Amino acid sequence: MPSLPPLDPEQLRAARVRAGLTQSQLARAIGVAGGERVSKWELGEAVPSAAVRARLAQALGMEVEDLLPKDGVSDLRRLRLQAGLTVAQLAKRGEVSAGTIKRWESGAMTRTHAPLDRLASALGVDEARVREALARPRAGER
Questions:
Q1: What is the DSSP string of 59-116?
Q2: What is the pLDDT along the chain (142 residues), one digit of tens a residue?
Q3: What is the per-residue DSSP string for 4-63?
Q4: Which of 9, 53, 75, 134 lies 20 to 30 Å from 111 when distance is taken between CA atoms?
Q5: Quick check: pTM over 0.70?
Q6: Is-contact 121 93, C-beta < 8 A?
Q7: Could you read off the pLDDT of 67-96 as tens digits, one per residue?
Q8: Environment class of 77 (CB within 10 Å of its CB; exposed 0-12, middle 13-18, buried 19+)
Q9: Helical pair 35-43 and 23-30, crossing angle rounded to 10 deg
Q10: What distance in Å separates the CA atoms of residue 44 and residue 5, rounded to the nearest whole number?
């Protein structure tokens, strides 16, 4: 399974400070054990799961995308992370294989004959947005 892209440590720390939260308070707000985890994310030493990223963004009043590095993450992956879904969860809800999701996210496959309505529904966007995400090259190739 491909690893999740790191969070932007500076963005995370700045957002936490703007929210007036300590690392421990943020950890409690998102349901993780101890401020040490938040500290590791802010130092770039660890990466939270997709579900935790969604809770983190919500607690800080921002979008998951705002916590990601500005390059190197495909559009579909950004949509998935914003929805707080793992590859397996999106595949199940979109009724496609996890391998297909991985190929779309890596840019190895952009064409699809699959109906995109379920995928769009799982991501909380319209079908046009999914088509656009699939048609885009990986962020690092733009």
A1: HHTS-GGGGS-SSS--HHHHHHHHHT--HHHHHHHHTS-HHHHHHHHHTS-----S--
A2: 446 667 888 889 999 999 999 999 999 999 998 899 999 999 888 888 888 988 999 999 998 878 877 665 557 887 887 788 888 999 999 888 899 888 888 777 766 677 788 899 999 888 888 888 887 655 444 3
A3: PPPP-HHHHHHHHHHTT--HHHHHHHHT-S-HHHHHHHHHTS----HHHHHHHHHHHTS-
A4: 53
A5: no
A6: yes
A7: 877 665 557 887 887 788 888 999 999 888
A8: buried
A9: 110
A10: 11
- Give CA–CA dist 110/104, Å, rounded: 6
Helix (H, G, I), strand (E, B) or coil at 139: helix
Please state, as a whole number, how many other Cβ atoms lie within 10 Å of the Cβ of residue 108: 9
Amino acid at site 8: D
3-state secondary structure of 134: helix
Contact 52, 27 (CB under 8 A): no
| Spatial CA neighbour of 6 closest among 59, 44, 35 | 44
